[in-house]
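Work Package 3 (structural annotation) set out to generate three-dimensional models for the target panel prioritized at the project kickoff. During this period the team completed the workflow that converts sequence records into discrete structure tokens, so that structures can be stored uniformly alongside our sequence database. As a representative example, we reproduce one entry of 94 residues exactly as it appears in the project archive.
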Amino acid sequence: MDIEGQPHANVFPDSEPKTIRLRLSEGDEVAPHSHPGRDIVFYLVEGTVELQLDDDRHEVTAGDIARFEGEREISPRALEDSTALIVLSPRSED
């Protein structure tokens, strides 16, 4: 599968945990959304992103990792050309 030409590339389709490579150009953003029932790991490979989680804003730079529950509303915005690896794991029932 060629993931290079896609800004949102599902690295392992039909597999869990869902793993996404997200590439954003400077100024690009993803509309606010959530992933209920999942735990999220957002690893920024390169660039700088303003990561909005609900009403909180966090500046994330290359090498940073953010972890949060999928019920939170997320909206990343690239402050410079950026690439992130996002893992969406189903929440286990304890």
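The CA atoms of residues 49 and 78 lie 4 Å apart.
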